[in-house]
Amino acid sequence: MRTAFFGGTFDPPHKGHLKLAEHILASGRTDSIMFVPAYSPPHKQDRSITSFDDRMKMLKIMLKDSKNIIISDIERRAELSPSYTIKILELLEQENPEIELQILIGGDSLAYFHTWHRAKELMEKWEIITYPRRDCDPTRKELLQHWNEKEADILLQSKLQMPYFEISSTSLRVSIKNGETPETWVPDNVLKYIKERGLYR
Question: Using N-to-C axis directions, what is the helix angle for 52-63 and 188-197, rounded to 10°?
Answer without folding.
Answer: 160
